[in-house]
Amino acid sequence: MAVSDVDLDVNEGEILGLIGPNGSGKTTLLNLINGLLRPSRGKVIFRGEDVSGFPAYLITRKGIGRTFQQNVLFRKRTVWENVLIAHEVNDKHDEWLSFLGLSRSRSQEKEASESTLRLLDEMGLISWKDRLCSDLPHGIQRMVGLAIARAVKPDVMLLDEPFGGMNLSEIANMVRVIEQMKSRGVTLLLVEHRMKVVMAVCDRIVVLNFGRKIAEGLPGEVRNNEEVIKAYLGDRNFDF
After folding, report:
1. Are the C-beta atoms of residues 79 and 144 closer than 8 Å to each other?
2. What is the pTM of this model?
3. What confidence score (pLDDT) does residue 108 get?
4. Largest CA distance in the chain
């Protein structure tokens, strides 16, 4: 679904929910923000800089992280290896070492390992660290995907349906991690279909329908917006 005339501001330090019926353009908008798609018109501004059309790797380097609906993992690598690789790929110092034909020092390797361990511990993944990603339950794979995105130390995180396929315990842990990220100053843009979770964790919510923004406001305001209700079901039976 193409998006058109979507004017969206994400305030520093907030959790902004992005909701809408299937095919409303939510994932397309995330792809435009993080460089997987190039806008035909309009701009993506990050910290005063026009980053429209920048490649995804450069958007990541500038501080915008991303998770995906489908788990993007090295399935024949362990949880530990997946997160460590993400940590090392984002290390600009490593880039220069590689360019010069040099290797990392032991202290740098130790720092990367310790950082990976801390992150896995914070996210409740430490007991899974030596398991191959191909052997993980779906909900744990989702959490590993977020750990990989966090390993690049983003200032803004784009979350594309992070609760998909999770059981109640996994949902509670994901909520804890998201709120922890916010408390540490990370700004989050959350696409999600579980309305009760969205209403509980988001500071503000933007609603898309057929690629256009139809509503924006506090959770309570959006919940009672007639146009939003109509977009989802056409009546008040939809469970927000």
Report:
1. yes
2. 0.88
3. 67
4. 64
Whose tokens are 């019926």? That residue is: 21
Angle 3-195-19 from CA coordinates, rounded to 5°: 10
- H helices of 184-232, where? 195-201, 219-223, 226-232
**Minimal CA–CA distance to 78: which of 125, 34, 44?**
125
Going by C-alpha positions, the residue among 47, 34, 38, 239 that lies closest to residue 149 is: 34
Is 15-74+138-232 in CATH node 3.40.50.300? Answer: yes
Which tens digits make up the pLDDT trace of 140-154? 999 999 999 999 999
What are the extents of the domains in the chain?
15-74+138-232
| Distance of alpha carbon 8 from alpha carbon 189, whole angstroms | 11
Structure confidence by residue, pLDDT tens digits, 70-96: 888 999 999 999 999 888 766 554 554
**DSSP states of 11-72 as a string?**
-TT-EEEEE-STTSSHHHHHHHHTTSS--SSS--EETTEE-TT--HHHHHHTTEEE--SS--
